[in-house]
Amino acid sequence: VRLIQDQESFVSLQDVYERHCCHVGILPEDPILYFRDCMFKGIEALQIPFKKGSVDLLNLRVDLFEEICQKFVTSNILNNYVKSIYYDFSSFWNFRRKFISQYASMVFVTYILSIGHRFPHKIGFSRDSCAFISTELLPALNQSGQFTLTEAVPFRLTPNIQSFVTDFGIEGPFTTFIAALGQSLSGKKQDLADYLTLFVRDEIFSWAETSQDSSAVSSIPTDGIINMQSEIAGKIFQNVEIIMKRVQTLGCSKEIEKAAESLQPLDQTILDLISCAANPQKLAHMDSHWHPWL
């Protein structure tokens, strides 16, 4: 059982987007329908095979992504919404500062735990305190039971979030908050590993139940059940190690150790992840219902 605190002031990114659509006189699904129709027309016109790795198909997706960002979903939607709540600059600045720290924490958690599908309706914040709420935080597991995210971007950093946080905010406090979380948790490896074991255990058991037929499991002999339990325990330990390595990566542990020998910034790994998450070509790979332009 997971308890969350709900407030009337909570609003999701989807709510902000729908408010914008109502203001400009379009339907929320118009960009998705436009993207679908143009994809069909483009594929027919180019006569390209519908293959995932087709260069022409990828270029078409990028062109449509940029076109939708200009025609339907501009990058100032979130910025304008917050400005409509906070009129004076000091309140706006304070809200944005809290937003950056909260969003950096969410990005940190979703990255280390391989949590994807961050659709706009799953990300919300309080208009009063800027407290964040993110629903359906479910790790992505592959067929081998490893925490592996297969999405094109490591986390959600779409144009509207980039515009609201600003380039200075991304390179400054946003990156710093992520690195600080990684460094603080890296210093308490054993405590973190103990908590992660409990979390990963539930996810692995859930994965094992869904990946195997319950009736088939009941017919397995005792020795087979013991071996299966040993295999699950191994997967739990393996996933905890994977998560711990990601925490150390975001904590820039290797960069700090080689600081005297390298000319790169200490947070280069985080900057690379941010660059990947904000890359239009990577965002264009995402599903249209994910709203990569929002």
How would you describe this protein?
By secondary structure, the chain is mainly α. Helix content is 62%, strand content 3%. The protein contains 13 helices and three strands, in the order E-H-H-H-H-H-E-E-H-H-H-H-H-H-H-H. It has a three-stranded antiparallel beta sheet. Strand 2 and strand 3 form a beta hairpin. The longest helix is centred in the C-terminal third of the chain and has 29 residues. About 3% of the residues have low confidence.
Observed structural traits:
3-stranded antiparallel β-sheet, mainly alpha, globular, 294 residues, 3 strands, 13 helices
Name the average pLDDT.
Answer: 84
Termini Cα gap: 32 Å
Shape type: globular
Cross-sheet strand order for the largest sheet: 1-2-3
Listing every helix as H and every strand as E from the N terminus to the C terminus, the arrangement reads EHHHHHEEHHHHHHHH
Mind sketching the topology for me?
Layout: E1 10-12, H1 13-24, H2 30-46, H3 55-71, H4 77-85, H5 89-112, E2 123-126, E3 132-134, H6 159-165, H7 167-186, H8 189-211, H9 214-218, H10 222-250, H11 253-257, H12 268-278, H13 280-283
Antiparallel strand pairs: 1-2, 2-3
Helix pairs in contact: 2-3, 5-7, 7-10, 8-10
Quick summary:
Helices cover about 60% and strands about 5% of the residues. It is mainly alpha-helical. Strand 2 and strand 3 form a beta hairpin.
